[in-house]
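Dear support,

I submitted the protein below through the web form. The confirmation email said the job was done, but the results page showed an empty box. After a refresh the structure appeared. I'm attaching both so you can tell me whether what I see now is the final result or a partial one.
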Amino acid sequence: MSLIGKSALTLFGALTLLPASAKVQDEINQVYDFDAKGTIELSNINGDVTITACDCNQVTLRAEISASTQALRDRISVEIDASTSRLSVKTEYQKAQDKGYNQGHSRVDYTLMVPNQVNLDEIELVNGNLTIKGVSGTLDADLVNGNLSSDGSAADIKVDSVNGNVDIELNRFDSTKRIDLESVNGTITLRLPNLDDVNLDASTVNGSLSNDFGVAVKKHKWVGASMAASNGNGAVKVELENVNGAIRVLQR
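What the results page shows now:
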């Protein structure tokens, strides 16, 4: 398929209307030629996102749309802006015209196969989980209600989470300069190959701190706890903050 140009497109797949207890289901499938270190942006309101690395030079995108009524389905559009170096995917919900439009449920679940070194920038989810498998490029993500897991990072990471667990694993520090993880409600788990050249600063308000590297945990007088360590040249800055939840720094 030829590349989609710079202008955003609203895509609708072949519609399937299921009987009686009735759910409307729709699917979008697209393939794009893509640079090995291109950038992907994605925002979603309701639904999970799974991004898996492949030894390839293209992005394969699947969007699975489901709604309890046709009216709710008609409110949803998937906007895609694509070039060989940047792919932007955004779920849009048309504003409801009356209260009847708010009855029922709808969601869009995304599955992407991407080159393993792509950069994931501005991945924003409201209600849904984010799962990243084998992607070694940068990660910048914001989640409101949902868990995040990533198992192949080797570059800078920034994650803000409100309600949900954050589980990040770094295989190596190839181009990693900074790791910044923040959470309000949920556990932060960071798995590192070592603490060589790592400057670690972690703190919680209500929650425990633990690590596999022998770093001392300091309990504050009234509330909260922290742990800090600086090793080697401290070139990798790791900052972890949690309000109501634990922080665990483990050896992978």
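Response: this is the final, complete result; the empty box was a page-load delay. The CA atoms of residues 163 and 185 lie 5 Å apart.
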